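Dear colleague,

As promised, here are the two records you asked about, laid out in our usual form so they can be pasted straight into your sheet.

NAME FIELD: protein one
SEQUENCE, THEN STRUCTURE:
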Amino acid sequence: MMISLAPMEGVIDSSMRQMLSALGGYNRCVTEFIRVTNSVVPSKVFHRLCPELIDGGYTRSGTPVYIQLLGSDSDRVARSAAVGVKAGAPGVDLNFGCPTKIVNRHNGGSALLKQPSLVGEIVAAVREKIDPKIPVCAKIRLGFDHADSLAEIVERIADAGANELCIHARTRADGYKPPAYWHHIGKLAHPTSTKLIVNGEIWTVENAKEALLQSRCKSLMLARGALAQPDLAQQIQNALSDHPANIAAMSWQEVLVLVERFYRESDSQNPKYAGNRTKQWLGYLRQRYPEATGLFQDIKRVRDRKEISSIICQHQRNFDSTPLRPIAA
């Protein structure tokens, strides 16, 4: 059973990848998308957005981190992929799913789903440009306005040589509104050469089981659910194992340790934006941990870095000294 941690612009950065992969359950991480515009992406950009390249493209707990590229020029995307692989990336992921208007206006992300032939061309160019041993993956939605072209898109990506294809089970028009339509993936003729991965609206172990059942996939990708429950991947892996153990979900006290660490490592350096990513994360955590609402309310209007840190630490002190489970560095 393979579980990937999705790229989420603005919150799943290297610090978050390190923390979540250390909890266990993940077989793969993917960087926030790296935009390919009018020139080939230089090596320094890959190192900035994927500092794990220093360690061979793996988190400290040994989880591989694939670089994700977003662009519509097949040649520049392919040459950028080659630069990223030379820098040490263990895999390349291509973004054909981003639904944001500014990206779509520039013919990027899910806008490309209206041009299945171009999607296939980009995948083929990347596959040809890099070492055959390096996996090439793609991430799509069911379509732009509808799912009518889904089968063609999947076929073109598979024929182009992609090793894996993750499908977010909603169209661009659906945005992130529930439900996710996992059954559309299940209707496809699953290609033998390309592994299909289901993504979208997986918040719980039961969601994961149902998504796998309806999609007929054997792998899944977690996004917002991973932020709402940091140990969700571990819980899913355990539940689907042959001999599941009785593993309690993380307590709010344990999650607070991660929140403080994330703020300190990823979100406190820039005075102008201090706390923004932590506040965004708390917005997801509130869905699983009611206590996150209080912390969010206490820091939502605070801009001073030291004051935010002090408030988080005060919330930690409000809990007793119940032993915490070990968390890897």
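NAME FIELD: protein two
SEQUENCE, THEN STRUCTURE:
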Amino acid sequence: MKNELLSQRPRIEVADALRGLAVMAILLLHNIEHFNLYNFPQSTTPFFQALDKGIWDTLFFLFAGKAYAIFALLFGFSFFIMFDNQEKRGKDFRLRFLWRMVLLFLIGCVNAAFFPGEILVLYSIIGLILIPVCKLNNKVLFCIAVILMLQPMEWAKFLYALFHPDYTAGPAAYGVHARKMYPFLEGDSFWAMIKSNLWDGQLFSLLWAWGFGRFFQTASLFILGFLLGRKQFFQYGAGNRRFWLGTLCVAIGCFIPLFILTDVLPGMLERKELLTPMKTIVSSLRNFSFMWVWVALVVIGWQVVKVQSVLKVLSPLGRMSLTNYLMQSLLGSFIYFGPGLGLYKVLPTTASFGVGILLLILQLLFCHWWLRNHTHGPAEWLWRKATWIGSKKS
């Protein structure tokens, strides 16, 4: 009984609000991208053309590379919660977590059948890094996270190209699979699209993630999320408030020069073999910095009653993040792809943004309704039950 009480902790609602923000941003971005089907009709008037560009640039500036990073950070935080709960009971969660990642891989494959840009398979693979590192001390974990965030593979590519002036990089591997999958996304055969998404779509997604530094960055974010949980930085307290205020200032201070550097890099490095890896390094760090701006603002804002009341609207979206993510893929593929309504042909960016807002409202209403009578979303409940199958917790 004592161990049971020790393992219980109040739900950290600010993490739900952060997840909700990430889910909202991902939904809006995926809609204006037509769920990775980059085929858009042009608006017919200069006004709407300018509006299309404004919406695109604004959403990408605010959320692209940041929403996914928040999601990844909280993935590591969630692992800490489960790991710590079991450790307080005298149990080792690592083998059960391995099984949980197998389940996530399978869930991701189902999702990938509809959306050739999903991240769950990637998370299930990279999440395995938490198994060998979770017992390490904080300093070692932090050093590993920093090394991974600095993109060692991209630095290796940069230095190799620097010392080998005759080296010429080949075309990006993910492009081959992108060209193969697009005809099926635009076509009218549902089963052909599913088959293409499961093969070329997944290879495209994973190779793109590898080529743009997402493997290393995601692993770093998982570890940092685990550290945030271990240090209890999402809890209330004067020390934590100072930490987040300091984080906000440092993040803004880092983002501004990195943002400027992104624009001037092409003039500094004309050779593609040098420019490409350096752009990946700089953009990764830029998005990483902006992610901390979002996280710090939400955590600080959560302690202000009026701000908290606004953020709480997003909390159910975050509590049901897996359900919402899967629903987005199903709805998005039906709305935009050829085997469904095929609206990629007729919806420019502004109209697609409007669809995204409508889907967001519907998901929010559904989440608020569902959680009145349930503690977990349907996908979360199934994943949880399958995770603990064969144990008393299941």
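A couple of things worth noting about protein two: Residues 238-268 form the longest helix (31 residues). The radius of gyration is 21 Å.

Best,
R.
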